[in-house]
Amino acid sequence: MERIKSAAVRYPEGTGLRLSFGEDHSVAIDGVPKHVDAHLLEMGFVTEDNRFVTRSEAYEIAVKAGQIKEDSGERILTSEMLRHARSI
Q: Which residues pair with 44 in a beta bridge?
């Protein structure tokens, strides 16, 4: 079963896309080269297979994997939700 591993930021570099990982998005952003325009950053998560997923897709994966409980809110995953669930 697919599980969420960590927060990630996807950004353009050269002719491709790169990822920066971290325990939360602020740490992941710190790994992005300073010359990258902040408007080009895409926040998301990576799975244990290192697949980048959007926050909404990550939410669905985390619920199915039992990493978080389903919420009636926006249905997007935040790094705080994962951190809170791991501390319980």
A: 8, 54
CB atoms within 10 A of CB 87: 6
Element (H, E) at 67: none
pLDDT digits over 57-69, tens only?
999 999 999 999 9
The amino acid at residue 87 is S
Type and span of the H or E element at 47: strand 42-47
For 62, list phi and psi in degrees, rounded to 5.
-65, -40
Q: Is residue 46 within 8 Å of 8, Cβ to Cβ?
A: yes
- Asked if 24 and 83 touch (Cβ cutoff 8 Å), the reply is yes
DSSP codes joined into one string, 12-43: EETTEEEEEEESSHHHHHHTS-TTS-GGG-EE
Check pLDDT > 90 for residue 86.
Answer: no
